[in-house]
Amino acid sequence: MGIHNEPGCEKARLALPQLVARMLAQLLDGSDKDRAFLTAVNSNEVVLLINNLGGVSVLEMGGITTEVVAQLRAAYGIRPVRVIAGTFMTSLNGMGFSVSLLNVVNTSIEGAAPNMVELLDAPSEVTGWSAPIQKTTWEAAAGRGGEGTEREEEAAAAAAKETAQDIKLSGLKHDPSVTKEALTAALKNVIAAEPDVTRYDTVVGDGDCGTGLKRGAEGTCCSTTHCYRIY
Question: DhaK domain spans which residues (predicted)?
Fold first, then answer.
């Protein structure tokens, strides 16, 4: 079941633990040739997002989140560095939820920019956004404060101290013309790929992904010196 009420891949009557186990297997089972896309997972650098499709109560979301975190730890050795649970992308009042895992990538360039976790932790006043729960907070609340917590707190303190220091320039230089050339080539490839993307999205979704990407790419191209349109 998707956010546009697309049909699911199967129907089953399962208790929550069995349902979560099946969903996590579809994300993390390396032997599944159709879905094994996440092959390299740093067990201590994963962000967990649990999205309410609109009709799940706060009480139920709490139970779902607890079950997902517990199974990630027990079955896969994954302890999310952040847990984000809430109602973000809905299907009106759809009775369901989704589980997403983000393998954290360091976005900083020699300290010149915040990393991905710091960006997620940044203050936000967006309506409906749920602040990420830190690993130490979650595990302390769950009564698992002993294992590795002291080391994690020391690392967090060191990271906070480093962040508080003056940011030094990286010295990184780039040629704007090269950037423009690469971006333009990429956008033209996106436009050219529209028929294939539309065909795939028609099979698994509502068929609007290709045209949306094409319009966005065309709009970006038209904001530069030349305007490219492929029909």
Answer: 1-129
